[in-house]
Protein: Transmembrane protein 192
Amino acid sequence: MDSVRKSGCGNNANLEITQSTEEDPLVDGPLISQDALESAIKREFRKLPTHWAVGVISFLHVVYVVVCVLITVFCWLSDEHSAECTAALNGIDSKTLVLLGKVALWVIVFIYDQFIQHHHSALRRRGYLNFDRMTRGMKNLPFLIHSAGNAAMLTVIAPASLLDSLVRRLSVYLLLSIICLELLLSVICLLRYLVHVITFNNKRPRPDVTEEERYHSHSGNSHTETGFRDGSSLEDVVEKQADVIDYLKQHNSVLSRRILMLTGQEIRA
Structure:
């Protein structure tokens, strides 16, 4: 009777071992070195390709302002070149041309803003949460500045006749001031953002979670504070935790595929 029980226990043990081996085929496989995994992860770094968009939008904005200044000087403020301006513009009113150019520029800035948002969402999914938060205000400001500029121009154009009756060509000076101020503020924000992007691409950092683990491993402190602390915003903490969880899910999926690929290479070798 005892021998039957022992044999039954032995069969169950063998069955459990067989099942666990079948469920986890990597148990008896070759171990993957940490250097191989780290080198595979390092190759995943992708530069943020938004610097060229900053250059394009800045160039177009400068061209628009230069055209507006030329139109203002030769068509609005000077009566000597009115016929020449009409011939050069093919009969189109100069104010209409300026407004149409402003609308076209706003559409381009809107496309630029969507392009930036798309790449920053991808960057956040790759684990670079701190950089996205650091540049959040800078990357959103150009679109807000152009939208505010449109509102200011409409505010000046609507009572243009009343303003010109108070001071001759006052609406023209106000429009030109708004356009130049808009350029100044937009270029400052774009240059600041461009510096951060170039620095980020040159540093080629690891994701925030990896950098934090590396920092604490070198400092000998394994405890990390990720909870709510005095002086911190609860919304920011919740948003950061949600981003970290989303990144870790994707990171684990990528790492699992890397492990399977490297394991297959080790087995074939």
Residues 51-106+131-203 form one domain. The chain has eleven helices and no strands. The CA atoms of residues 164 and 170 lie 5 Å apart. Residues 3-32, 222-230 have pLDDT under 50 and may be disordered.
